[in-house]
Amino acid sequence: MSGAFLSGMIAAASLTIAAFFWRFWQRTRDRLFLYFCTAFLLMMMERIMRTLLNLDNEMAPLVYAVRLASYLVIIAGIIDKNRRLG
Length: 86
What we know:
This protein is an all-alpha fold. The chain is built from 3 helices and no strands. Helix 1 (about 5-30) packs antiparallel against helix 2 (about 30-50) and helix 2 packs antiparallel against helix 3 (about 60-85).
């Protein structure tokens, strides 16, 4: 299979997961779901950028920065959730 096809599949899966978290956020208004939705949208954007810019290297600075931002959003959501509980 081609790398572009797999990246497209991962991007579509990330968008689907983000949509589920968006729906969970609309039902519960729990901000943690909004953080996760944002993180998966960033992961989707990272895959699209990687494909459009023909970046084969996982450690390319632009790709790595977007992926790092998505993980930081998840960490921020977890910290926010724990602060509100305490």
